[in-house]
Amino acid sequence: MMLCLVLSAAAAAQAPAQGGTFRYALTTNPRGMFNPILYTEAYDGLIIDVVFDGLIYIDEQLQPQPRLAKGWEISDDGLSITFYLHEGVKFHDGVEVTAHDVEYTYKTMLHPEYTGVRYGNFRLLVGAEEYHEGLRDDVPGIEVIDDYTIKFTTTEPYAPLLTQFGYGILPRHLLEDIPVGELERADFNRHPIGSGPFKFVEFLTDQHVILEANDDYFLGRPNIDTLVFQRVALDALPIYIRQGRVDYAEISPDNYAEVSGIPGVDLYVYEELSYNYICFNLRQPRFADPIVRQAITYGFDRETYVEILREGFGIVANAPIPLASWAYTNEGINEYPYNPELAAQMLADAGWKPGPDGVLEKDDMRLEFEFLVPEGSRVQEQMALLFQQNMEDIGIKVNLVFMEFSAAVDRVDAREFDTFTMGWSLAVDPDPYGIWHSTSPWNDPGFYNERSDQLIEMGRRETDPEKRKEIYAEWQRLINYELPTMFLSYGVTIAAVNERVQGIDTEPGPLGPLVGLEKLRTIWIAD
Amino acid sequence: MWRYIVRRVVLQGIPVLLGFTFLLYLVITIAPGSPVTHLRGVPNIDEETIARREAQLGLNDSFLVQYIKWLGRVLRGDLGLSFDSSRRPVAELIMERMPATILLSVSSIVLAWLIGIPVGILSARYQYSALDYAVTFFAFVGISIPSFFFGLLLLYVFALKLNVLPAGGFFLAGEPRTFMGYVQYLLLPSITLGLSDIAGIARYMRASLLEVLGHDFLRTARAKGLSENVVVYKHALRNALLPILTLMGFTIPFIFSGAVIVENIFAWPGLGSLAIQAVSERNYPVIMGINLMFAVLIFLGNLIADISYAIADPRIRYE
Hints:
The structure holds 2 protein chains of 2 kinds. By secondary structure, chain A is α+β, with helices and mostly antiparallel strands. Chain A has helices at residues 2-13, 42-51, 99-110, 119-122, 128-132, 172-175, 237-242, 256-260, 290-298, 302-309, 340-349, 378-393, 405-413, 433-436, 450-461, 465-482; strands at residues 21-26, 56-58, 64-66, 69-74, 80-85, 142-146, 149-153, 198-204, 208-213, 226-231, 248-251, 265-280, 315-316, 353-354, 360-362, 365-366, 368-374, 397-403, 419-425, 485-498, 501-502, 524-525.
């Protein structure tokens, strides 16, 4: 009883203050495409996240949670999802959000003239492909049952589908008269109207975006009055943080030391859903044997890369599902600790012998290759030098090729590379199909493995999360043995938050202290 | 004079602009990388979507067809639509950033002239004095120091250590836009952008004035008993200013291209970040639009310099 009293007293003392302005620093200008189904840049996505509501949102555990939908039901065969909407939720212009708005939003992404990039996420809906090809006018896979109920049906079970329902719902009454092909030029995209916790006020190019609290938000008005996304020069960001001109900023590891000394500012380091890697071109016979790939991995000092070059901001990676994901496993995962003797021994056992110039050779193959490195990141350039040096120690000659990013992507797409380094940012759902299935255009290493394809396909169809996790665990062990790419590190993000901001997640998961931007509704500004 | 201007524009300006845009379009289309490269990072995107996007953007046409289509639109006054997701008209993207770039460029030019000319004059007037040596020293530093480094230096000193000026950017949301506010935000970027011009103009002014001061007519003036001040400021200065006017024509292009870099350091809301972003994304219409506009401005700048030359020197006539 005493304890209860004490707790409630403490809670009362921390009652959220109302009002104030929260400033979120942006180092890149948004494009001004504030339309949830048409944007492609993450910065536009930030504004969209607070102006619009999706059927679901993703919580700090990366699990879908109800938002505009108060709940959903997945059929026993795993083919359909029925969403039940909250009643009485209003768009910022006062019109109610109904299942027809949901239908409009999703059907537009399937339309033949749709100019955005999200069609692929929903092509499995029944009738989507014929509708997209212009062969029919309706999509049986999207069915409005009544004003507050909508059912989506797929042609085959597709486990990642649920997490795709976070796209903001568009107001049909404002957009339905605009031909879908011209939607990308609609004025709406610059003056968005959604149903979210904040109303759009102003976007000044290269300066700021201003939003104000939605007094009528169905989950309660946000505590802060004004939300500002403030454009800040990258070089000046630490100064802005120090002077309290911004309350929240993501900073790079280079700035960590400088920002960590600032009184009144807390730093949070959290794992993100990303990793970087060195890709082998498996189309070349010399990389075909997994022993060669494993030996190269043993021969590269990735601990030094993460601990020294990245100054500890990262985690050595050994498989393509990051620590931050629920599907991550380390059971049965070989960590390939740095061991140049073992690497050299493995290559010798596999029949590789030093040629006249000391470079390993076998039959007519030779372990001298190009390593393509996109320019612009000092850490990656240093990594390349370390790799070159480590490889030299085990008899492998690496020729570094530094290249501007777009040009490097060109070479990768044309498959004109021996090895290269890049990174992936991943979606919330761990489905690896898009990057790893043998039919995927982004399968850069050219990895083909029947069992891997089978597991990927099983993982997509399995709707029981526990079984799905097991499938992905087996798949990670397979990739960890095969190493079509050498995994370097899982990424981390550093967020600097002014102490006057209260109510954030102080032990942040992969979505950070604001849980995406979810917490903006409930944070408050202390005096 | 009018005949000269018309001839300059028709016979020189138009062919130069045509050749320039042709070469530029050629270079940006043959450069590796594609305008749809950045879509690759979007999860679940398929090849078909990318192919569709390429078709929408007209990337399947050959270089020549693309260029002719672009030129045709430009002649009708349309710079096309940006390739990025917002698909906004390039003219709009440029126009909304233009005022900030012009404000910064003009203020740095004004600053350069207001400081550079008097400093150059004093430096010549008191040749080989301590002042002259100091000016010469700082002028060389000013010409040699890269603007990105100087900009960071100013940020460090004035924004971080002394905390008297804002660390770049433009008005914070909600901040009142007063005249003093503009001055505060403009000061550091203008000095950064103008520094090498201040130094250059001071050096030119000094050299030009010294040369004129050695002429016979000034010895005559001195012999007539005119005071040194009258000799220098009345008789010598007007003649010495002449070559400086040509310098103005030359500096305008450097000011604009310098602005691109300085704007990025200071998050100045001008064309700089748009230009750099457009290049890294291979946003052809935006790259073309910005460069075409700069080319026109530079051409006009040179024309104005030539005309002012004629005004300053009665002997120069263009026919």
